[in-house]
Write a structure and sequence with these properties.
Layout: H1 2-35, H2 40-46, H3 58-63, H4 67-70, H5 82-121, H6 130-154, H7 159-180, H8 196-209, H9 212-235, E1 241-244, E2 247-250, H10 251-258, H11 267-273, H12 284-309
Antiparallel strand pairs: 1-2
Helix pairs in contact: 1-5, 1-7, 5-6, 5-7, 6-7, 6-9, 6-12, 7-8, 8-9, 9-12
């Protein structure tokens, strides 16, 4: 069920992006045809849509509501009505949102694959030690930065969900193109970690508390604790016992032997017998440990988001 929700979220994000691109392109084309301004999109993106035009259009703009004057800019506007200006701004917002979504697909996906890629895809690597520890800590980085950007600038508690959807989009593209398209690994035997419920939780904490400190403490801890329990529904069937050639092993081990990953198939057994067992026999201990580390990481990356979201101007060049 959770895997189905991941696929549904990916399909929804792709369809939304396609619809936004088509709608934005047609809207900009319509505005260009009506205004005769070839640089309309550039004006929208640069924030100069309310600047004055040439003296030839002064009489035209006088007949229509002066949006430029209302905006505190110079007299004159390339639009004939407020509704037309509002549609242009909405189109620009859609285009910028799509661009930001694509950037998050690339940036977040590369960051995540370089730090947690093996645990996230290979079923035989989803152990009870490193998987619940490494993944939440690496995931909460972009989540904190995105929450600062959306909350401080727009008062939208959607930062974690936005970047999580982008990450899942990139992972499913990678899964189908690379794992299935190039190496013919069955898609049913490899799946990315379900992170949407975790993202919704930390966004809801920010929405209700309206405090990034509460979100860092309560939200990050819940974000880490939900990781293993949320994915257990998908992982549990692969932990069933199986006898293969006189050896007792789980189905995840069997998959690891038949579809050899870049790491060694003995990974789970080495971890299960190693010093990480001091956390206990289940995943609760590692999840709490990851939660405490995630709190610290959230504090750091909240300020990273602040640093990259703050505009600065140069007085002289």
């Amino acid at each position: 069920m959770t895997s189905f929700l991941n696929i549904a979220a990916f399909i929804f994000s792709v369809l939304a992006a396609i619809i936004a691109i088509v709608a934005g392109t047609s809207e900009v084309r319509r505005l260009r045809e009506r205004t005769g301004d070839d640089s309309l999109l550039t004006s929208i993106l640069s924030g100069s849509i309310f600047q004055s035009r040439t003296a030839d259009t002064a009489n035209e703009s006088a007949k229509a509501p002066n949006v430029g004057a209302l905006a505190g800019a110079l007299a004159g506007s390339p639009f004939t009505s407020r509704a037309e200006a509002a549609r242009a701004i909405k189109t620009a917002d859609l285009l910028l949102t799509i661009a930001l979504f694509l950037i998050m697909i690339g940036g977040y996906h590369v960051h995540y694959m370089l730090t947690s890629g093996d645990w996230d895809f290979w079923i035989n690597l989803k152990d009870r030690r490193f998987w619940p520890i490494v993944l939440p800590i690496m995931l909460v980085t972009f989540v904190a930065a995105a929450q600062y950007f959306f909350w401080e600038n727009f008062r939208l508690p959607i930062g974690a969900t936005f970047v999580s959807l982008a990450l899942l989009a990139g992972e499913w593209i990678d899964l189908y193109v690379s794992f299935w398209g190039w190496t013919y690994l069955p898609v049913t035997l490899s799946w990315p970690t379900s992170i949407i419920p975790m993202a919704l939780f930390i966004d809801i904490v920010l929405l209700l508390s309206r405090s990034w400190i509460v979100t860092a403490t309560v939200g990050s801890m819940g974000f880490s604790l939900l990781m293993y329990s949320n994915n257990w529904v998908i992982l549990a069937p692969f932990h069933q016992a199986s006898e293969q050639y006189g050896t007792l092993m789980s189905l995840a081990d069997v998959i690891g032997f038949h579809y050899v990953s870049p790491t060694m198939p003995e990974y789970i057994r080495i971890i299960e017998r190693g010093t990480m067992r001091t956390f206990g026999k289940d995943a609760v201990g590692p999840s709490f440990f990851a939660g405490f580390v995630s709190i610290i990481v959230y504090f750091v990356w909240w300020h990273v988001g602040k640093m990259f979201s703050t505009l600065s101007y140069m007085a002289k060049i």
